[in-house]
Amino acid sequence: MTTTDREFLQRDRSIHPPAFTPDYKTSVLRSPRRAMLSLQSSLSEVTGPTFGHSELGPLDNDLILNYAREGEPIGERIFVHGHVRDENGRGVPNTLVEFWQANAGGRYRHRNDRYLAPIDPNFGGCGRTITDENGFYYFRTIKPGPYPWRNFLNSWRPAHIHFSVFGTGFSQRLITQMYFEGDPLIWRDPMVLGIPDRSAAERLIAPLDLGAAVPLDMLAYKFDIVLRGRQQTMFENKLQGN
Amino acid sequence: MVQPLPTRLQETPSQTAGPYVHIGLIPHQAGFDIFETNFTNVLSQPDTKGERIRIEGRVFDGAGVPVRDVLVEIWQANAAGRYNHPADRQEGKPLDESFRGWGRTGSNFETGVWHFETIKPGPVEGRKGHRPMAPHINLWIAARGINIGLQTRLYFADEAEANADDPVLNLVERGQQRDSLLAKREERDGQIIYVFDIYLQGPNETVFFDV
């Protein structure tokens, strides 16, 4: 009847940054030192919150217009699109995708960001959308600028967009960052380098997608997201078909 | 040679939520308003069934300092012990349409205190062949310096009998901090409050789950 009650596959932690990545200094005191307790999926893990289209506004996925006051924001206009799938390759439909970022100059609209680059009065820097029946999502925005941060004396984040994704069970909850093809800051970044497997880190880099660009308007980048998958068959008590 | 297994995709690697997570997930706390409807830390609506409770706490780093930029999300069953999700087909437990069961909040930038207004969940059935789970709330936390979101559970210290039978609490071996999963009940001005502090690192380290 449904595949949403199946247990999750064990998360492959080797493709994620471990908790303790000392070159990213804040992780030193914020990383657990004991082993996590592995838990097989109960109802508490296979279920998770659901969201409806009625909760979103019509401009929520348009960062060019959703905070426009007296004009449009300054910067490189881009279209970002992709699919949310699970490890079995199935599209994850009707799931909430949220994103946030700095403006074209690398300044965040946040009370704690004091970087000298100015706020853009027409740019908020956040948006959200719900995937369609195939797991597809898209939004319009301005390409964010790199941003200095207090880690090493001369640390700069590559241009990036933060993503938050839900999936169908609370165990799929994921926050990550999308980077842009060709950015020379990527392989100098301790957050990227915290991922032990370089090929896994490469999957956070969105390629330029000229095929989806809008001529005389905006360039496009494609960013696919993979969430954890569920077991293909139930081992306990009942067998279910797809 | 053997037949190849079908290729599985690999999960997208996690990255930290960073210090400005509020912009995307709690814009009002970042200092601006942009969406017409916002997700909040109030789960109970006026017609939601169940005992009103407030849960609150702080998250401490390995030096004992409160983490003041943490994001906390909770996921829980309703007062009857049923999740508002299609995969929950427990019999005899009504769905409460007024209760989504999920909320999010950020800790206070000065004090590090976070809180939710919710209802006490009922017990949920355990995995097949296991005893029912004691009432609990699932927590997920993300912050600057946390590379991959941390999962834990809040149990209620005043449910000693149910807790003693809980299949998950009973997996916690001696030497691990079973008590770190128990929220303590207080009453303040007639309101029921469960205090749940989380220790990321050190002698009182909270039990985190690889779920």
Automatic annotation (TrEMBL), chain A:
Pfam families: Dioxygenase_C, PCDO_beta_N. Residues 80-108 form the Intradiol ring-cleavage dioxygenases domain. GO terms for biological process: 3,4-dihydroxybenzoate catabolic process. Keywords: Dioxygenase, Oxidoreductase. GO terms for molecular function: ferric iron binding; protocatechuate 3,4-dioxygenase activity. PROSITE patterns: INTRADIOL_DIOXYGENAS. InterPro entries: Intradiol_dOase_C, Intradiol_dOase_core, Intradiol_RC_Dioxygenase, PCDO_beta_N, Protocat_dOase_b. Belongs to the intradiol ring-cleavage dioxygenase family. This is Protocatechuate 3,4-dioxygenase. It comes from Methylobacterium variabile. The lineage of its organism: Bacteria, Pseudomonadati, Pseudomonadota, Alphaproteobacteria, Hyphomicrobiales.
UniProtKB/TrEMBL annotation, chain B:
The keyword Coiled coil does not apply. GO terms for molecular function: ferric iron binding; protocatechuate 3,4-dioxygenase activity. Keywords: Dioxygenase, Oxidoreductase. It holds the Pfam family Dioxygenase_C. The keyword Oxidoreductase applies. PROSITE patterns: INTRADIOL_DIOXYGENAS. Residues 55-83 form the Intradiol ring-cleavage dioxygenases domain. Belongs to the intradiol ring-cleavage dioxygenase family. PANTHER family: DIOXYGENASE, PUTATIVE (AFU_ORTHOLOGUE AFUA_2G02910)-RELATED (PTHR33711), PROTOCATECHUATE 3,4-DIOXYGENASE ALPHA CHAIN (PTHR33711:SF9). This is Protocatechuate 3,4-dioxygenase.
